[in-house]
Amino acid sequence: MTDRSTDDTDTRPDGAVPSEDGWSGTWPLDRDALAVDPVVLARGLLGRVLESRTDDGVVRIRLAEVEAYRGLDDPASHCYRGRTPRNEVMWGPPGHLYVYFVYGMHFCANIVGLTDGEPGAVLLRAGEVLTGRELARRRRPTARGGGAVAKGPAVLTSLLGLDRAHNGTDLTDPDSPVRLLDVPPVPEDAVRVGPRVGVAAAKDVPWRFWIDGSPAVSTYRRHARRARPRA
Predict the structure, then answer these.
(1) What pTM value is reported for the model?
(2) Domains in the chain and their CATH numbers?
(3) What is the pLDDT of residues 215-228, one digit of tens each?
(4) For an engineered disulfide with 113, which of 33, 41, 59, 158 has Cβ 3.0 to 4.6 Å away?
């Protein structure tokens, strides 16, 4: 078990951690907490903080919108047709980052759940930048919100500086360049649930979760012909 005796993170009543000038630090989330069904994991990830450390600096994003994707029983999942070199990380163990390239120009990031050998992950759709707003703005100067929000999965990865090299990163390792920090999730009355973005109705289920009122949450769009980011 990770020792959290020195964890002095302050939180607001809605479970959010302080903004960047009030950050006090915390430990990565335990792997056992991520070894659950992606639908359960998705709900539990709301309000958690993803931290990325690079030579340029540190960016921390509070997760505000996520989508669950299971494996062989989810037609919208990358793992629906079986194990491939591309989706290998999604088969576990839990607590790792699954990063893939889409549209020939964007990266999307997912957090792997379930157990080793059983595929499932949660797509990180949007979040609020808590630390490193200037760096986030430099990485994507055209992003809405002036570096304060990561609105959409491709924007989120670019603000965090994530790319294919981060595929397979262990988010539970205290020394990892990308960590999932153990701060309280948001309370139930702040959570909203709905259909996943860009998934055909025949394949869809209400597995998208978001924080009510967050400026980072994506605009919902129904299925279009071309493929959309998914885990």
Answers:
(1) 0.84
(2) 24-211 (3.10.300.10)
(3) 999 777 665 555 45
(4) 41
